[in-house]
Input
Amino acid sequence: MKETNQEPIIHIKDLYKSFGDLDVLRGASLDVFRGENVVVLGRSGTGKSVLIKILVGLLTQDRGTAQVLGKEVATLTEKELRDLRLKIGFSFQNSALYDSMTVRENLEFPLVRNIANLTRGQIDKEVETVLDAVGLLQTINQVPSELSGGQRKRIGIARTLILRPEIMLYDEPTAGLDPITCLEINELINEVKEKYKTTSIIITHDLTCAKVTGDRIAMLLDGSFVRQGSFEEVFDTSEERIKSFFDYNFIQ
Ligand SMILES: Nc1ncnc2c1ncn2[C@@H]1O[C@H](COP(=O)(O)OP(=O)(O)OP(=O)(O)O)[C@@H](O)[C@H]1O
Output
């Protein structure tokens, strides 16, 4: 467990969010500390993505606190929200690369859009550094349709890293990948943490991903975090709801 005298980078307290009659988050609380990978595990439809969207200001909670880097996200102006989002790398489920652009152009895009007055040389250097970090320098002139699913995932992560975010949010990083590619992506998540000193939330229902990448696991069930701790601590329980999640996911 983490020391509690540290300020959390992400502080979620008693968060509630409903859509009409559907109560999705019901008192969710979670702290994420600098430099750790926290895995949020939970069934489909349990509110994992809603939680992430609240953290980046795409949705607003009904009640409760969601603070990122010391700022209450729901109270930020558009400009403040933009500044905050620059510090957060959001790796979407389906990488969302531009098919008509080469890998180089895909990676240049966020740089040029967000940082003024970069020289051609600086742009090239940043693109090459980040591609090298994800082990795909050789794909620089290819287009996404020429790459495998795992490679596209890596490029998606590289595109997020290029702005040097303090926080990485991974939404289902291993979804749709074969087991070997899953392991490679898990390793990459850990390498990113070491090389870029990021603090991460990883949303998944892949238990191997959780075990390999999570310094801490937080189990979201019925709208709140029912257990937090190491992988073993979370699953060493007689609580039926957690055991059934574990059993069900292991036989996938
Ligand atoms: N903008 C929205 N309007 C209405 N309902 C929504 C909205 N966003 C999410 N929901 C609902 O909230 C619930 C939780 O959705 P969410 O996407 O957070 O699930 P999840 O835990 O990420 O699931 P999965 O693992 O399948 O991605 C779902 O029932 C979903 O339909």
